[in-house]
UniProtKB/TrEMBL annotation:
Organism: Arthrobacter hankyongi
Subunit structure: Monomer.
Protein name as it appears in the record: Shikimate kinase
Stored Gene3D superfamilies: P-loop containing nucleotide triphosphate hydrolases
Record text on cofactor binding: Binds 1 Mg(2+) ion per subunit.
HAMAP family: Shikimate_kinase
Amino acid sequence: MGAATPLRLDRPLVLIGPMASGKSTIGHAFAAEHGLDFADSDKRIVDRHGPIPAIFTALGEHAFRELEAREVAGLVADGTPRVVSLGGGAILDTGTQQLLARCTVVFLDVDLDTVRPRIERETGRPLLAGDPVARWNELAMRRRPTYQRLADIVLDTRGKSAADVVRELTEHIFERQSR
């Protein structure tokens, strides 16, 4: 399947989903496997503006979302085929939603049991302050309809390794290309 036919993208492939759903890990692994460029919007923000918690503290969530929208636009607006991982809340911006209509959007669907170990051990996620499990669940449920509406492909990642998800995503992309 994949070895005989190289995978080509004709537009950005964008991974969306809740915090800690594996977007960066899956995106990086998928891009590496197929020789594609990879970009992580959160990493670009950190590289250019400093740690996300510091941005939230100094400027607030609204200012962070503006920075985030600009970074996402810089990664996808020109249509360059690459793999892009977005922060969990990036899809809240209507301009970003419009840009995603010109991308192949993959929603990494995940449940609380899968992410619980990741969010309980991690600090530095400003929106999970206090009770990270309850906050994650609230945000994931509130954003879920938007993730689903924007997605061209939905991958259920529950109980799957990164390699399994990359393999499944590869199959979906080859299937779309053969239509």
